[in-house]
Recover the amino acids of this structure.
């Protein structure tokens, strides 16, 4: 596999090697790919959790368990007002 890196990416890799964190560019790339893989897994978990929460919310709304939008806005305004008072 042959990849092209931008000059700033090459510089970043060289800096990591110079700092002694990695012995060569392959180690830096390996670490970057491992972190990307972990991030992707976390993102996919977040998507799935969000999808499940939306399903629950839709079911609650279908059962008439929702909260009126004006009530929600009023509660948010009150929380914001309290937060501003606590900062003063």
């Amino acid at each position: 596999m042959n990849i092209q890196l931008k000059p700033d990416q090459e510089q970043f890799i060289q800096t990591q090697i110079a700092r002694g964190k990695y012995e060569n560019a392959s180690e830096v790339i390996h670490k970057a790919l491992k972190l990307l893989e972990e991030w992707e897994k976390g993102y996919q978990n977040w998507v799935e959790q969000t999808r499940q929460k939306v399903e629950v919310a839709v079911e609650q709304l279908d059962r008439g368990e929702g909260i009126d939008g004006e009530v929600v806005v009023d509660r948010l305004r009150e929380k914001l007002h309290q937060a501003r008072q606590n900062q003063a």
